[in-house]
Amino acid sequence: MPTEKPQTQSVQILEECEEITLVELSRICRVHTEWVVELIQEGVVEPLPAQGTQWRFSATSIVRVQKANRLQRDLGVNLAGTALVLDLLDKIEALEARLRGIAEASAPENADTD
Amino acid sequence: MEYKDYYKILGVERNATQDEIKRAYRKRARTYHPDVNKEADAEAKFKEAGEAYEVLKDPEKRTAYNQLGANWQQGQDFRAPPNWDAGFEFSGDGHSEGDAAQFSDFFDSLFGGARMGGGRGGPFAGRAQFHAEGQDHHAKIEIDLRDAFSGAKRTITLRGPEVDAEGHVTLKERTLNVSIPKGVREGQHIRLAGQGAPGIGKGTAGDLYLEIRFAPDRLYRVDGRDVYMDLPVAPWEAALGASVKVPTPEGPVMLKVPPGSAQGRTMRLKGRGIPGSPPGDFYAALKIMLPPAESDKAKELYRQMERELPFDPRAGLGV
Question: The whole model's pTM is what?
């Protein structure tokens, strides 16, 4: 196996504070802007509070749009269903994080009764 | 190459109706979809079901697959008989859905020709120009919590097909140095533009997305940017107050335990969580440890407390 010199790559963290436009969001996710607009109308992704005339999005929307795209493509979920699935997945993730904390804190022991 | 029992993969009988096959596939797809199921092997199972459905949902492919015979076992070493598909006509240009590039060698050996159209006069046959954008790739990367405080460098190896000038496809390994900036949180995604699958023709390469995971930590729990730990203290430290040394991920810090602290009291060190704007906080929950009553001296001290302190921990229970 020929080993090449590792490339060094600039990385981009998808941060809440970083802003992208509707066109950038659609291009990065390889979807039509019309479809992203539908996602916005369904509340799957939300634009940031308006500063000017153009919609801006937090970069974390990329992950959400991609997830919505995969769910529709792979499972045939419709828009409303996609919104519901994503909300429920968020809830499950939050609950699982809390559960991990609780499970670590209390490993119950069996008690003897006198 | 391993034989794949597509009926077994979908959990249906060989004589299942097309409706039964569709139902079985739908159910598996929902269960194992990698966005829904976080198990490590979910993605593999999802793809396997997709491949099985690709064959069984199409009466032409299913009939062709069936005539390989029912005596093959899942995982058995397999080689497609020569001209095994003679007399079968595959319509269209192969598959309609699913992640075609990810299907198994077994699938390729049976239906690969139909898919690429190569030699069969398919849509991409000959030297026709064809351009397609490369796919995005997704991977998880596990880092230590401390890396989120200092930033980290990781070398990752990616393996993917690459098309050379003559159009041959080879598997190639690439090594990437990725510097993970400080302040990353669990579940965040890092995007490496152009590091996904290469495009075909003039198509641009896909992107690579890395999802950050923290390795489980002996001391700390993380929620967003906030970091939590249990801080063991002696009963007298909790009762009388004390200044104790706390190991934060950035190094030890002296923390004041106020007098009269109860079990579970949580102290916050503002801004000592994962860096950012604003940074997270560090929380230490007091955990009162009892000195063991092993020595005579320790036993005597406990007895002295019993005699001299008017203390009934169960006073409020009404018994």
Answer: 0.64
